[in-house]
Amino acid sequence: MIVFKKVSKIYPFDCQALVNINLLIKDGEFVSIAGRSGAGKSTLIRLLIKEELPTHGQIFWKDQDIGILKNKDMPLWRRQIGMVFQDFRLLPNKTAYENIAFAMEAGGRPNQDIIRDVPQLLKLVNLTERAEHFPNQLSGGEQQRIAIARALAHRPKVLVADEPTGNLDLLNTWEIIRLLMKINELGTVVILSTHDRDIINGLDKRVITLEKGKIIKDDPNGKYILF
Amino acid sequence: MLTTLIRVIKSGWFNFWRNKWLSTAAISIMSLTIFSITSLLLINVLVNSLTTNLEDKIDISVYFKLGTSENQILDIRNELVKLDQVRSVEYVSTKEALKLFKEKHKDNEVLMQSLGELDSNPLESSLSIKAQETSQYESIVGFFNQEDYLEIVDKINYLENKIVITRLASIVKVTRQVGSIVLLILIIMAILVAFNTIRLTIYSSRKEIKVMKLVGASNWFARGPFIVEGIIYGIIAALLALIFIYPLLWYFSPKITTYLPGTDLFYFFQTNLISLFLLQLAIGVALGSISSIIAIRRYLDV
Ligand SMILES: Nc1ncnc2c1ncn2[C@@H]1O[C@H](COP(=O)(O)OP(=O)(O)OP(=O)(O)O)[C@@H](O)[C@H]1O
Ligand SMILES: [Mg+2]
Euclidean distance between the first and final Cα of chain B, in Å? Predict the structure, then answer.
């Protein structure tokens, strides 16, 4: 269970990215965050993994205020979240395989798990034959799929995907969406940020719509309302 | 724990290979640093042996009046040897003094002739004294100011040599002081250059460090590979520095010896090869690892 309590974020020099956000996400939910470019979707997600700190307010995960997490507990918290960054953020010096393996290594998983899981994850995102490629040898869509595989590698309790389909063609987009839904059915909370109208309309799940940093709509079976 | 360590080392090793250009730059600078530090240390050895040579040439002679018994002088000698400031005391008897005199002036016929006309030996016996340090002659001279000695001591050549001795003493002192200050400054500069190179190398990886932490790596897991990489730089740089210094010394050492007899750097280098290499290795590893740790600290703050 994730709770945002009166959360605001002001970036340096007075940029109000989020204004007084109150939000509750229950276990097992599939939540889409919709909104125009600049509405604050990525910021909301950055606060959740504590990449940025909220200017006001608190964020809870199972009654734990993540704002007061100790430094040494941060990795444990982050290993419960699988994060797909809008800009992928693969490690440039590591191959596709190693990028996925890294998340598991960092989590202290034994080698035999890594040898077993990474090929499966590569297969899941259809990139088995690109395993030994470095990120700069992969297309945007391929990098995005590797980023998704990495996010799934440590079997997160929450999967956060920031525009995970932005670089994908229609076929791959739906492949990914189906994958997210399957993961959600297995019990993982999925938080998906997107401004793709078709995805939201096709999902028929909870939609939170942001505009200028405020939640203007929170609909359990949402449709895309902007534009 | 062990798995983590192996993973960190493996990852550092891969980073090292995959960052070939940055690695090459960092290693060159570091090996230059280690090379300079070693050269400076060798120069220090040279300066020290020079000043020691110089100090070795300084002594004072105390001449005793004719008729002073040998026993008296030997007693004084024993007293002197007990003093902390005294390094060595050499007794020159009247006979030896004569022998030395004759040796020195054997080509001077007039002098020899007039010496032959004397019935007795006109030369006084003496003690020639070397101090531990040049500055201590003053106090040794003071030792002879005791009343018992005033009667038998004829003269001390310190007063004549005083200016030379004090000047030498101050030259020796200044040389050592300036030498160690310059050495220190140069070493600090070299270390700063190497440190900054490593900092740049890590600066180029700051985004990676952040990503590692965001996908759940602990501080040590994120920074470990960079420290390993820094240590690898250090080891290779130390090896390179050694490989450079060896032929250089082999070539230059004989030339230095012809200018400054009594110094043999190559010999010094060869006999201390292992400890010198260990020192270089220690400098390299310390420089590499500490620089990485300091440079990386601020990027861990995610
Ligand atoms: N590091 C930052 N410093 C200052 N302002 C920022 C920073 N990051 C984001 N902003 C501002 O905060 C606002 C919200 O940005 P955010 O990235 O959350 O938008 P978004 O909804 O993810 O947009 P997009 O759909 O384009 O990714 C924007 O106005 C942006 O300019
Ligand atoms: Mg965004």
Answer: 24
In DSSP terms, A156 is beta-bridged to none
pLDDT for residue A160: 93
Chain B residues near residue A91 by CB distance under 8 angstroms: 208, 211-212
- What is residue A204's predicted lDDT score, i.e. its pLDDT? 82
Give the confidence band of A129 by pLDDT, cuts at 50, 70, 90.
very high
Distance from CA of B289 to the nearest CA of A (A): 20
Domain with CATH 3.30.70 in chain B: 66-151
pTM (predicted TM-score): 0.73
Closest Cβ opposite residue B215 in set A83, A108, A110: A83
Residue whose CA is at the smallest distance from ligand 1 atom 18: A40
Q: Largest Cα–Cα distance of chain B, in whole Å?
A: 105
Instruction: Give the position, in ligand 1's atom list, of the atom nearest the Cα of A213.
Output: 14
pLDDT grade for A226, boundaries at 50, 70 and 90 = low
ipTM confidence: 0.88
Which burial class, exposed, middle or buried, applies to B246 when counting CB atoms under 10 A from its CB (0-12, 13-18, 19+)?
A: middle
Contact at 8 Å (CB) between A147 and A166?
no
How many Å apart are CA A218 and CA A222, to the nearest integer?
8
Nearest CB partner across the interface for B216, out of A71, A94, A106 = A106
Q: Which residue of A has its CA nearest to B214?
A: A78
CA A193 / ligand 2 centre spacing (Å): 8
Structural fold of domain B66-151: Alpha-Beta Plaits (3.30.70)
